[in-house]
Amino acid sequence: MKENIEIIAKSAKVISDNKKMIAENDKLIAKLKIKEKELNVENDRLNKLLKIEEQFKPLEDNPNFVYLNDCKKFVASKLIGKEIFEPTKTVIKSEFQEITLKAGKSLESFLAKLKKENPSLSYLLVIEGNMANKYDRSIDKDNLWGYQKSYLRALAVYQLWQSNSIDFRKYNVEVMICGSGFNGICRDSVEENNKRFSIQILPKTENTNI
After folding, report:
1. Comparing C-alpha atoms, which of 153, 150, 163, 145 is closest to residue 93?
2. What is the pLDDT of residues 26-48, one digit of tens each?
3. What's the chain's average pLDDT?
4. Any residues with CB less than 8 A from the CB of 200 and at least 6 apart, and which?
């Protein structure tokens, strides 16, 4: 009788332990399913980004722009190295307005196509002003005047486009205007060519925590 009681007690403990293991396995399976779902969402997000990168090819091949692959920026090709502003001023010279407008219209056309192909996505359009340093690069890279002036020049480009009915925001686009002054990445080794403004288009997609 005593042995039977011990066997029953051991069996009950085994059953109890098995139930605990099953419960823990169920919890682990549930966690793995959640993780799998998160990974699938992230995979879809990355696939969308890869697809969008392919759709940027037409703008990369557009003669109105030069694509800077290292920093994923576009520069108005016909304005590189040109003094499109009067010295110390932020108004675009009349002889360069048509070229600037042409670049803006090409950009708007491209963004319209992006919206048509990806209606659920939105984008951040960065318009960045750049300044050329002196031949000996004697102006400090963090010169405050350079930051202010390059921002105002980028703003002047945007305002020219806006005043000519070029509206990027209707294509799910948020516009950010900034100036890197005498600083910034992907600066041209020929200092004069840093008299320019650059464009960057960043797709905005939902992030998931993995």
Report:
1. 153
2. 788 878 778 877 777 777 767 66
3. 83
4. 71, 72, 73, 74, 125, 126, 128
